Amino acid sequence: MSTLSQLEFIPNEYIKDLVAVIKGERALNRDDGEWIEPTTPEKIDFKGAILPLSSRDLNQLKIQEDGIFSINDKKLYTNKDFLNRTQITDGIKNYETYVAKDYDIINSGFRIYYIKKIDKIDG
After folding, report:
1. Residue-level pLDDT, tens digit, the chain, 123 residues
2. Which of 21, 40, 43, 97 could form a Cys-Cys staple with 87, CB 3.0–4.6 A?
3. Domains annotated on the chain, with CATH
4. Do 88 and 73 meet the contact criterion of CB atoms below 8 Å apart?
5. pLDDT at residue 64, rounded to an integer
6. Do the beta carbons of residue 97 and residue 88 sit within 8 Å?
7. What are phi and psi for residue 13, nearest 5 degrees?
8. What is the 3 state secondary structure string of 94-117?
9. CA angle 41–76–47, rounded 5-degree value
10. Which value, in Å, is the radius of gyration of the alpha carbons in the chain?
11. How large is the greatest C-alpha to C-alpha distance in the chain, in angstroms?
């Protein structure tokens, strides 16, 4: 029988070591009007589970996101909080977050992100 992971709702055998790459945002220097480029991306090691989308997910995304999903999209279950467009890698495949769902009622830290497969990580 499976034991529950540190994420409480996900069996341990699905949990992987993952890396999030957080890119800084460009900022406007209000003194001279020039754009300031972001600093070096920050890499954060964390644990999570990447699983396929269900039929229900596909139906919800079709309604909510106007068909921007594909068969290569997945769900990321984690207890980390990321912004949209955060890049995620499992060391083999690369993804980018595009929709987040929190489960504050069940567990204040538990999150599900819909992620799109991308070719490479910027940074």
Report:
1. 455 445 667 788 999 999 999 877 767 778 888 887 777 788 999 999 999 888 777 776 665 555 566 777 899 999 898 888 899 999 999 999 988 877 766 666 788 899 999 988 775
2. 21
3. 12-118 (2.40.10.270)
4. no
5. 54
6. yes
7. -65, -15
8. EEEEEEEEECCCCCCCCEEEEEEE
9. 65
10. 16
11. 62
pLDDT at 7: 64
In the numeric block, the tokens 């993952």 are attached to: 18
Q: 56 is written with which tokens? A: 């229900």
